[in-house]
């Protein structure tokens, strides 16, 4: 089969790799129907995630069909259409029992495309299949469902829920890429007074408006002042960091009000300054997190009911074998207008980019 293999910082290729086989009785083999590229994959290619060894097939999000299951798998069977979660759960360790699946100590957590071969291939082995794949409603298209493997649960859990968004809040989202846009969409579920989005790219700020942002700002043009102006100088109740750069995190800590929340989603490859000389007396709560995906079943029900704007985030759909071209499109989002690039799915053409 073919897979997208990481060879070291800046080097990866779509190439022949061995077919996966069952290794444990809890495994399932999934024929991949649709995958997408995550910002974390770009961090891996930059060398920001040193645990990923050369020779690893990348990817941790997919929709596909079960083709084989181990003897202990009970919840799915060959022929089932499933969502492959970005997080694998053993279901037995302390953290899994607390629904903190991202911290699994039984061989799970974020392992696909990280510690074991991932989903950007024609087939993938999924450990602990009973808790790590989700049967898909027929009403949800593959290119929409694949967004529920990572970006929507990540934005919802690590951004909106960790940030404790409440009705009437002012929510600021720094970074209007796919994660930031999903955070805007899911923050709206809690009826905040206003949502403010900050980014460098005009097309992403326009997308943020379409998904529910009430105000937008170029991060080069003092977004903190806009937040201050809209809150009578108080600051935002919740600030969500969705970039993963020191300057964006530091901006978030300057935009939050006393007693507010900063929810960091971004994957950071460099240290950031925490200005405790300013923050120590402000009662600010700062949260970090790897997604646990405990919300995936809820989000799937919402998607099936048409309550999530998944289609607005998919700007490009290409055949699976165009993986290298897809990475080029996604990594040059400023020029291509790419938000989410999906490979496979029900349609195999380049969709119209978001203007």
UniProtKB/TrEMBL annotation:
Residue ranges of every copy of the Enoyl reductase (ER) domain listed in the record: 8-343
Pfam families reported for this sequence: ADH_N, ADH_zinc_N
Single GO MF descriptor: zinc ion binding
Keyword field: Metal-binding, Oxidoreductase, Zinc
Region (Disordered): 1-20
Gene3D superfamilies given in the database record: Medium-chain alcohol dehydrogenases, catalytic domain, NAD(P)-binding Rossmann-like Domain
Superkingdom of this protein's organism: Bacteria
CDD domains in the cross-refs: FDH_like_ADH2 (cd08286)
Cofactor(s) listed: Zn(2+)
Family named by the database record: Belongs to the zinc-containing alcohol dehydrogenase family.
The protein's name: Alcohol dehydrogenase
Organism field: Streptomyces pluripotens
């Amino acid at each position: 089969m073919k897979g997208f293999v990481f060879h070291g910082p800046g080097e990866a290729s779509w190439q022949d790799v061995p077919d996966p086989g069952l290794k444990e009785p809890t495994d399932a083999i999934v024929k991949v129907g649709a995958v997408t590229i995550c910002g974390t994959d770009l961090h891996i290619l930059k060398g920001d995630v040193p645990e990923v060894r050369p020779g690893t097939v990348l990817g941790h999000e997919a929709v596909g069909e079960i083709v084989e299951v181990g003897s202990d798998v009970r919840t799915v069977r060959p022929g089932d259409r499933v969502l492959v979660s970005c997080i694998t759960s053993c279901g037995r360790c302390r953290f899994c029992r607390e629904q903190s699946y991202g911290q699994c100590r039984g061989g799970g957590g974020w392992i696909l495309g990280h510690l074991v071969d991932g989903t950007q291939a024609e087939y993938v082995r999924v450990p602990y299949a009973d808790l790590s794949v989700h049967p898909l409603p027929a009403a949800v298209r593959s290119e929409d469902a694949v967004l529920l493997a990572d970006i929507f649960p990540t934005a919802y859990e690590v951004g909106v829920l960790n940030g404790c968004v409440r009705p009437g809040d002012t929510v600021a989202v720094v970074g209007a890429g796919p994660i930031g846009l999903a955070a805007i969409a899911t923050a709206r579920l809690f009826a905040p007074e206003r949502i403010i989005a900050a980014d460098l790219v005009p097309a992403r700020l326009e997308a943020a408006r379409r998904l529910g942002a009430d105000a937008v700002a170029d991060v080069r043009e003092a977004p903190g002042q806009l937040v201050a102006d809209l809150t009578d100088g108080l600051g935002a109740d919740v600030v969500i960091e969705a970039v993963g750069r020191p300057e964006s995190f530091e901006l978030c800590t300057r935009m939050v009000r006393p007693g507010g929340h900063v929810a960091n989603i971004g994957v950071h490859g460099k240290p950031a300054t925490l200005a405790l000389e300013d923050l120590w007396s402000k009662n600010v709560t700062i949260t970090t997190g790897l997604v646990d995906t405990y919300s995936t079943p809820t989000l799937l029900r919402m998607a099936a009911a048409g309550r999530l704007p998944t289609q607005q985030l998919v700007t490009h759909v290409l055949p699976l074998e165009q993986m290298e071209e897809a990475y080029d499109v996604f990594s040059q989002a400023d020029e291509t207008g790419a938000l989410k690039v999906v490979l496979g799915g029900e349609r195999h053409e380049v969709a119209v980019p978001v203007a």
